[in-house]
Structure formats: C-alpha cells, structure tokens
C-alpha cells in the first residue's frame, strides 16, 4: 500500500465515531499531507553522506478549515508525523530530532490553501540556520576507559561479537558495504541495512528497506526510538544499546 493511502486509512480510523459530515469537508486531510511532503522535500539540504530535511512543521489554516479539524487536530497531527517519518525513511533522508506537526488557525491563510512553515529544529526548538555538522556518517572505534557519558552499541553475537562502538551525534549507517559507519559482513545483512540517528541523547533506528529486516526487542520496525538496554537485531546479528561512561578519545577515529 502506498504511503499516502496508509495515511488516508489511518485518518479514517481516527475519525470513526465522529460526525459523518467530517468526510464531506471541503479540505481533505490528504491534501494537507501532500503539501507537507512537497514542502519537506523542497527544503532538503545536502549534508555529508545524507540529506537533511525539516523536522518541525506548522500548518496554518483558514478559520473555516481549522474548525473542521479542531476536534481531532492532535490525533491528525500525530498521523501526519508518523507518515512524514515513513516518507523520510523510504527516501533515505535524515532529521536532527523527532518530527512534529502543529495545526494552527490563521485568518491570513486562504480557504483550502494551507500554508506550511517548515524548519530544522533541535530538541530545544531552536531553528538551525544551516545543515548540522553532526549529520555525516560517524566513524567509530572501541570504547576506552570511561571519562564521560555516551551511547554505546555492544555486539552480543554474530561476526562482530564482543566488540563495542560509541555512537556519535548524527547519522550512522550499518551494513555489509565498506562505506558504512559500522560494517557487518554477514550474509543476512543488507549492503545498507539500517541507519542510527543520535540527536541530543535521543537515539532512533531506521530500517533501510533491508532484505531480512531490523528488530527492536523482538519487534520488526521501520522507524523506532531506542532506549538504554534495548536489544537490536540486524538480520540475525544481535546487539544491545548501553548509555554509560566512556573515554573522550573514542569520540573520533577510524573503524
């Protein structure tokens, strides 16, 4: 099923039990979704090893359009956020923090003509003026004596069993290809299998349409936030994420 169709079906489920007149409204949620996607793609920025797209969206609606969505605007916004995350994953795009969508009333917006404001923001809501230098694929080395708190990927079994890698801010790919930040040369691992994104201490994993999938705590995922102690399967390669002290020397270096 196409991503936009998934969005429409999700919105229909969200609207179940509400007045049937909502389905006859002049401005359809899918129209907002299409405009959000176009705006996100139009504002992507080239970075090293990836393209960065906005993660904070404000949808400004004419008062009559806003009134049609007012009763379930928060649920609609969550649907839009999940859908934009899927679009970004399918297109191998990166964001610096979680995607947020806010619907606001604006008398200056035209009827059936939502205005989309899209910006790149960090966890404090400060707009980035240019692509973050922390976005390129990071390089790794084994963890040294502890000196500060960091996010560590510990490989439990498979071809890299026993090794540990410190994850740096930005995007990091994992897979068989030698240009990945972490190279897993195993038959059940795709060339570009998954991407880790770390921003302000929050870690997320994106499956990159891999053949054998990515699992978090046993559940298959396309995009998932990762917490301390979560277990990740890349194909059949098992690893765990630990947040703990590490050495400053581990922040840079080769594979």
In short:
The protein is α+β, with helices and mostly antiparallel strands.
Percent of sequence in beta strands? 25-35%
Series of secondary-structure elements, N-terminal to C-terminal: HHEEEHHEEEEEEEEEEEEE
Count of helical regions = 4
Would you count the extended β strands for me? Answer: 16
Backbone CA Rg: 20 Å
- Give average pLDDT, whole number: 77
Helix content: 10-25%
Q: Quick one: biggest sheet?
A: 6 strands, antiparallel
The separation of the N and C termini measures 39 Å
Unreliable spans are 14-25, 124-147, 246-255
- Helix/strand structural class: alpha+beta
Using the alpha-carbon principal axes, give the shape. elongated
Strand order of the largest sheet: 7-6-16-15-12-13
Explain what this protein looks like in three dimensions:
With 255 residues, the chain is an alpha+beta fold. Helix content is 20%, strand content 30%. It is built from four helices and 16 strands. Strands 7-6-16-15-12-13 form a six-stranded antiparallel β-sheet, with no helix packed on it. The longest helix has 18 residues. The radius of gyration is 20 Å and the shape is elongated. The protein starts with a helix and ends in a 9-residue tail after the last strand. The C terminus is likely disordered.
């Amino acid at each position: 099923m196409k991503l936009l169709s998934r969005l429409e079906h999700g919105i229909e489920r969200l609207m179940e039990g509400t007045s049937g007149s909502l389905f006859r409204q002049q401005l359809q949620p899918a129209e907002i979704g299409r405009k959000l996607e176009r705006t996100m793609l139009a504002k992507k920025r080239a970075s090293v090893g990836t393209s960065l797209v906005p993660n904070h969206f404000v949808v400004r609606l004419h008062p009559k359009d806003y009134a049609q969505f007012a009763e379930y605007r928060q649920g609609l916004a969550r649907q839009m956020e999940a859908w934009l995350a899927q679009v970004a994953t399918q297109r191998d795009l990166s964001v610096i923090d979680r995607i947020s969508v806010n619907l606001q009333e604006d008398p200056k917006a035209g009827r059936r003509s939502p205005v989309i404001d899209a910006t790149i923001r960090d966890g404090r809501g400060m707009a980035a003026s240019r692509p973050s230098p922390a976005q390129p694929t990071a390089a790794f080395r084994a963890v040294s004596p502890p000196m500060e708190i960091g996010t560590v990927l510990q490989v439990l079994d498979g071809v890299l069993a026993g090794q540990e890698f410190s994850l740096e801010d930005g995007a990091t790919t994992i897979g068989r290809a030698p240009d990945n930040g972490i190279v897993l040369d195993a038959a059940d691992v795709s060339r570009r299998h998954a991407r880790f994104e770390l921003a302000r201490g929050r870690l997320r994993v994106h499956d990159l349409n891999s053949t054998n999938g990515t699992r978090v705590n046993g559940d298959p995922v396309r995009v998932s936030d990762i917490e301390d102690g979560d277990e990740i399967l890349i194909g059949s390669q098992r690893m765990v994420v630990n947040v703990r002290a590490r050495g400053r020397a581990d922040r840079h270096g080769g594979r």
